[in-house]
Amino acid sequence: xxxxxxxxxxxxxxxxxxxxxxxxxxxxxxxxxxxxxxxxxxxxxxxxxxxxxxxxxxxxxxxxxxxxxxxxxxxxxxxxxxxxxxxxxxxxxxxxxxxxxxxxxxxxxxxxxxxxxxxxxxxxxxxxxxxxxxxxxxxxxxxxxxxxxxxxxxxxxxxxxxxxxxxxxxxxxxxxxxxxxxxxxxxxxxxxxxxxxxxxxxxxxxxxxxxxxxxxxxxxxxxxxxxxxxxxxxxxxxxxxxxxxxxxxxxxxxxxxxxxxxxxxxxxxxxxxxxxxxxxxxxxxxxxxxxxxxxxxxxxxxxxxxxxxxxxxxxxxxxxxxxxxxxxxxxxxxxxxxxxxxxxxxxxxxxxxxxxxxxxxxxxxxxxxxxxxxxxxxxxxxxxxxxxxxxxxxxxxxxxxxxxxxxxxxxxxxxxxxxxxxxxxxxxxxxxxxxxxxxxxxxxxxxxxxxx
Length: 452
Prior knowledge:
The chain is mainly β and about 450 residues long. The protein has helices at about 1-15, 35-40, 55-60, 290-300, 305-310, 425-435; strands spanning about 55, 60-65, 70, 80-85, 90-100, 100-105, 105-110, 115-125, 125, 130-135, 140-150, 150, 155-160, 165-170, 175, 180-185, 190-195, 200, 200-205, 215-220, 225, 225-230, 235-245, 245-250, 250-255, 260-285, 315-325, 340, 345, 350-370, 370-375, 380-390, 390-400, 405-410. The N and C termini lie far apart (about 105 Å).
């Protein structure tokens, strides 16, 4: 019997130790009951003014000229002591201790209902210790923060109306340092990251509504670094990227849901330097006179075809620039260009007219370098291009039937999946001239001689 009684007592203590928000014990009343009872009374009893030496914060005190200390309204001297205020229904709003004009120690602020709003802690006016903000009536914490002499320190928690954690952060010296995890309204984790001295460092995970990873990124000193992975909702790979300290460097690949190739891009990290990038039409003319005549017609908005037709005997050659760096262009480098038709530029034996449609000043940290390709869902090539130092060398565009509908910088090719596009003139010539290999025939087997 004594053993059963002991077990019952232990169980009772365990149950009583569980937190109960809003209503504490059965023998106590809810925190909001006081306000409900007062609403029925004809005369309101004030909770303020009952403690000797405690002054009214609003009547006796004010903020000092420095905006930091609380001073007495009469003498303008820093206040030391306790002040309080009440809501209009007579319920205590707050009671705060001041030392030399600064809030000091732990104080509590209450809702008009009588329930706790926030418990704060100060040391000489500086936030220090645990702060907890509560929801009215339910008294479920909305957030909990810990300060150390004015700076956030350690774990910081934010909750939803049910008391479930929606955000966990870790601070050191007032900056994020350590894991940070956020949850959705249903309590499912949606983000997880790690910080070092306020910047992202290491893996970063993004989750879908089921809690499955859909993004797996990597950071170094707050910048994207290394391989980044993106997934479909069911976990199949969607995309991979290669980054080097926030600069694209390597292959970027996107896959269809069936894991066949959708697109591929290639980039190379370069040393950052300011530069101007131009998109323009470039007309190569045999003489200065021809260039000036063409430039004048284009300046006067004469149709390009009409202008070239009137100078067809001059054999003007047209080329197109697409976001190319001025400092790396053989003809345009060293020239100050403006949007529109520019004056003739001499380069070698020719004169050039540049009609600029776009001119940007940028500092690039990466360039397009190598193969760029897009495919239709059935695997046929949609477009294929080759870049060198961010300059388009060759481009082919195909329709859904595999017919080439646009070509730049090279001969027309097929849009079949296994077609490889030569990248240089030498490689093309080599491919054309390379003879077919003859089938090798095995030598006839000979019988071993006797005695061998």
